[in-house]
Amino acid sequence: MKKIIFLLFCALFALSIGSCKRKKYTEVVEVPLPTAEEKMTIGTPEDAKAEPGAFELTKLNYSYDALAPSIDAMTMEIHYSKHYLTYTNNLNKALAGTEQENIPIEDIFKKLDMTNTDLRNNLGGYYNHTLYFDIIGTKAGGKPTDTLASAIDKDFGSFDNFKIQFEDAANKQFGSGWTWLVVDKSGKLQITSTPNQDNPLMPRAEIAGTPILAIDLWEHAYYLSYQYKRKKYIEAFFNIINWKKVGEKYEEAINK
Ligand SMILES: [Fe+2]
Fold first, then answer.
1. Ligand 1: distance of its center to the CA of 197 in Å?
2. Distance in angstroms (rounded) separating the CA atoms of residues 144 and 155
3. Do you find a cis peptide bond into 45, omega within 30 degrees of 0?
């Protein structure tokens, strides 16, 4: 008798599982999916506006889709209007009502308390992305000209040597961070990398200097198009470097 009751219980249990599975399946297929139009909507850089504060977003002189295929439009939109905007708003909030609101950003870096993680991340996040979006663009790539070209030849032997060293440093950066071309205190060009949102203007930087070129190595900068192939993104980055702009930043740095 006990055996029959046990078998009946097993049969009822199996039926109830089957019933639950069928019900669950029905509910899943009834969930409406987003339309293709909703998935593909891309705004414009002008749509992104920082809240009032000491610092504003740098203006892009190119559209989100202008850098494709080196960087796709969706990556550019999310990077500029979400990541960069968030750093900017957070920095403005952190500085609101302090005396730092009215001094040049380079001076804020000089006195930065590196244990103040919130300010360190948002100050770096704002500065680093501003430089990055400023030195990429359309009708770009190729090689630098004029004074910067001569300086690269002098300090790295040739542009090709510089490119190999810069790409190597970027590929070796473990995890999120940045690789930089900086002008050090003696006026020499140097390549360096920093983790997270740190940069060569911060106290105790391994190689200190004024950044004139930066590549963002956070996954949000490339993952939609390149996934794990960061090397491909680093190679493509050289197609969108605005060397004229980098040259202007070099002139500013050596004439300080
Ligand atoms: Fe970024």
1. 9
2. 14
3. no
Instruction: Give the span between the Cα atoms of 72 and 75, in whole angstroms.
Output: 6
Joined tokens for residue 5: 């009751």
- Ligand 1 centroid from CA 19, angstroms: 48
CB-hemisphere CA count at 13 Å for 99? 2
State in Å: Cα 216 to ligand 1 middle: 6
Q: What is the pLDDT along the chain (256 residues), one digit of tens a residue?
A: 445 444 444 444 444 444 444 444 444 445 455 565 555 678 999 999 999 999 999 999 999 999 999 999 999 999 999 999 999 999 999 999 999 999 999 999 999 999 999 999 999 999 999 999 999 999 999 999 999 999 999 999 999 999 999 999 999 999 999 999 999 999 999 999 999 999 999 999 999 999 999 999 999 999 999 999 999 999 999 999 999 999 999 999 999 8
- Separation of 230 CA from ligand 1 center, angstroms? 14
